[in-house]
């Protein structure tokens, strides 16, 4: 008998008469945030991660998106095919919509000024946006390569308090991307650099009503 087998035999003998473990209870809290605080907490945590947060309603959304793109000086904007046409209905003549072509290379996407997408969920306690590749979010590449990302969050049905509340609502077979603020990293001297592996500027539009 090897030393390993001897040790395992001793463990089995020691617990042979032990009672069965009680069933695990799942009555713990799934969130520490009161429902009336969830949206405000999301906005605070997004801003803490250096995302730019905007609030509007469905009626004001097209004008706000057009204003954000104009303020950015964007000449081109990419929107996945599932983005509602109304979102981009107010674009000025100086902004061209680029269709999402699956054959586009990273270099071609890098020439796009901005991308506008929806999201799957937003998590208030972590300030996180979750994208799952649905038609209004597109392929992961289109949200990682362009330097400016506008993400639209429908407050009524897409904001949850915590990660435990988010997990049952997400499909684990889909390509989930969890975004907490603009892309950033730090070197050994803790100098922060943004835009390394994703957009340098993240703007989040919270649509209420």
From TrEMBL:
Signal peptide: none
Gene3D superfamilies in UniProt: NagB/RpiA/CoA transferase-like (3.40.50.10420)
One Pfam family matching this protein: LUD_dom
InterPro entries recorded: FTHF_cligase-like_sf (IPR024185), LUD_dom (IPR003741), NagB/RpiA_transferase-like (IPR037171)
LUD domain residues: 93-207
Name of the protein described by the UniProt record: LUD domain-containing protein
Species this protein is from: Streptomyces liangshanensis
């Amino acid at each position: 008998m090897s030393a390993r087998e001897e040790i395992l035999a001793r463990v089995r003998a020691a617990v042979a008469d032990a009672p069965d473990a009680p069933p695990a209870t799942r009555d713990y809290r799934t969130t520490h945030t009161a429902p009336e605080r969830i949206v405000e907490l999301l906005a605070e945590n997004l801003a803490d991660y250096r995302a730019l947060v905007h609030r509007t309603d469905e009626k004001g959304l097209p004008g706000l998106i057009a204003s954000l793109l104009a303020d950015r000086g964007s000449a081109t904007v990419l929107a996945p095919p599932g983005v509602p046409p109304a979102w981009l209905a107010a674009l000025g003549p100086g902004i061209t919509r680029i269709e999402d072509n699956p054959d586009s290379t990273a270099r071609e996407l890098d020439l796009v000024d901005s991308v506008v997408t929806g999201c799957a969920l937003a998590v208030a306690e972590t300030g996180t946006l979750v994208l799952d590749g649905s038609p209004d979010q597109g392929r992961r590449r289109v949200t990682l390569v362009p330097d400016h990302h506008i993400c639209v969050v429908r407050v009524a049905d897409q904001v949850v308090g915590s990660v435990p509340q988010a997990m049952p609502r997400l499909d684990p077979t889909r390509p989930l991307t969890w975004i907490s603020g603009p892309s950033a990293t730090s070197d050994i001297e803790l100098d922060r650099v943004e835009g390394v592996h994703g957009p340098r500027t993240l703007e989040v539009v919270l649509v209420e009503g």
